[in-house]
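Before going further, learn to read the protein records used in this course. Taken together, the C-alpha cells spell out the fold as the letters spell out the chain. A record is reproduced here so that you can trace the correspondence yourselves:

***
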Amino acid sequence: MTEWVIVDEPAPHVRRITMNRPEKRNALNHPLRGAILEALQAGDQDDDVHVQIVRGAGPSFSAGYDLGDGNEGHEYPFYTPGGDGQWPRHVTEGWMGIWDLAKPVIAQVHGFCLAGGSELATCCDLVYIAEDAQMGYPAVRFGVPDMHFHPWFLGMRRAMEMMVTGDSVTGIEAVAEGWANRAFPADELDAEAIKMAERIAALPPEVVQLNKRVVHRQMEHMGLRSGIRAGTELCALGTHTQAMADFVAASQEKGLTTALSERDAKFGDYRTSTRS
C-alpha cells in the first residue's frame, strides 16, 4: 500500500507531515487528502506535539487536485452531503477544518502550489515559501475555483488579475501581497520552517492555541468563512459552462496531459514552461 504521507519530528514538539506523491507533484487524490487530514488530527490530539508542518516531497508542494485516474477505486475520505456542488463543499470543509484544529499548522511551500494545493496551504495558519515557488490557480482557464480565498489574502486587484488570467505569483510576490508570511531561498526553506516551528513550540501550548483562535475568529466575524462557503455555489455553476464541457471533451479525446498543455500553451507557463 502506498504511504501517502511521511510523518516525522524534526525538532522537539514539532510534527512534520510530508505529502508523498513526488512522481505526481503531490497531486491531491482522495487517499492523499484523507491522509493529510488524518495525520494533522492525530498530531492535534498528541500532547507532545505543539505545532505541525505540512510540506511536499519532490519538486513541488502540490500541483493541485488529481484530474487524472488517481481517484479510481477510492471514495471521498469523509462524508459530505451530495447534490450539485458536493465537490467544492467537500474540499472546502476539509481544508477549513485545519482552522478548527487546536494547534498551529505551517505550510512549507516550494515549487508549484496550484489550485487545490493553494487551498491546502491557504488554510494552514502560517505559510513559509520558497522565493521561486509559484502559487496560482490555472484551473480558472476552464472553470471556477472551489475555494475563493484570493480576495481575502491577496487583495481585490491581485485576486481579480489571477482569476481572469490564471497567472501565478512567485514566493516573493506572495509575501508582498500578504498570502505568505516569509520567503526564503529554496535550499534554506526546510531549516527556516523548522526554526519558526521551534519558536512557536517554545511558548505555552494552551496560550498558543487560544491565540490561534483569536485571529481566526476575527476573520470569521469579518465574513471569510461564510464567503468561502457561499463561493462553492459559483464553483458548482462553473461545471455547467461550455468551457468546462470543452475541456472535459478534450481530456477524453486527447488525454489529460495534452488538454492541459493546450490550455496553457498560449500563456507559456505551467506545463508549457521550461521549468522541470
